[in-house]
Structure formats: C-alpha cells, structure tokens
Amino acid sequence: xxxxxxxxxxxxxxxxxxxxxxxxxxxxxxxxxxxxxxxxxxxxxxxxxxxxxxxxxxxxxxxxxxxxxxxxxxxxxxxxxxxxxxxxxxxxxxxxxxxxxxxxxxxxxxxxxxxxxxxxxxxxxxxxxxxxxxxxxxxxxxxxxxxxxxxxxxxxxxxxxxxxxxxxxxxxxxxxxxxxxxxxxxx
Length: 187
What we know:
This protein is mainly alpha-helical. The protein folds into 2 domains: 1-106, no CATH class; 107-187, no CATH class. Helix content is 77%, strand content 0%. It has 8 helices and no strands. It has helices spanning 4-23, 29-48, 52-75, 82-105, 111-131, 141-147, 153-163, 168-184. Helix 2 packs parallel to helix 4 (82-105), helix 5 (111-131) crosses helix 7 (153-163) and helix 5 runs antiparallel to helix 8. The longest helix is centred in the middle third of the chain and has 24 residues, at 52-75.
C-alpha cells in the first residue's frame, strides 16, 4: 500500500511523463535513469564538500527522477532491459550513499542510530512484501514462513494499513531526517 507521499509523487510523475513524451520525442526511460545517477553523483560531491542543503536538494531531485523513470518506462516501454538498468542504478545509489555517508560521519553514528535504521528498513521490507503479497508466489522464503503466522486476510490488510507509512518514499524521508540529525549533531 502506497503512502500519501508516494501517491503524490507518482501522480506528478505521470503528468510529467505525459508531457515529456509529447514534447521530447527522443527521450527514453534510460535517459531519465542516467539523469538520476548524475543527480546522485552531484549530490554525493556536495556531501563530500559539506554542503548539506545542496546535497538534500540534489538527492531528492535524483530520487524523483527514479520515480519518473519507472512511470515513464511503464507507460512508454521503449527499452527491453530497462527494469534491470533501473535496479542496478538503485543499487549503485544505495551503496554509494551508504559508503560516503558512513565514511564521513562514522564518528557520529551510534548503536541507537544503527538500530533505528535497521528497524526502518525492516518495516520497509515488510511493507514491500505485504504490498506484493500473493498466496501463489511469495517474494522471499524466509518472509513467507513468517507470514504463515498471519496468513489471515484481515491480518494482512491490517498490517498493510500500518506499514504504508514505511514505504520506500517515506523511508527516504526518515533516513534523510536521521542524516540531517547526524550532520548537525555536535561531537
């Protein structure tokens, strides 16, 4: 189940993708994904230079480009391997951001912060699994064993309403809040 933020971002992406498809005929989804990677690389360069507000702006712009690329590819499927390119770009973004941020601020990261981040990512994973829940095809075997305990349709619907606040868009917001706290935290 999508959060209010994800619904808003997807609706704006739909409008923009329709506009781009009409006005820029040569544009493909992989161009938008590449732009997203460029925005994230520029964001990381600003993080290296301790220009945090510019980092946040470029990071959110790049994140919006990934949503836009996904919507654009779904509506105007124009590249055979776009899903693989999108997934690889997401991993590049996640790993590079993790490496740079933890490298720069490792002295400020405490055990409590690590526990909070792990819980947030766990709730995001549960949200993804419940959103894509299907009795025939379960996403991950370990999680499917856990879901056998709550295999009741009403329990799944109840959990979907709770975990919608932990979808990928809101997790990004939560992580940026944690990163902002760490950036401005005194030693």
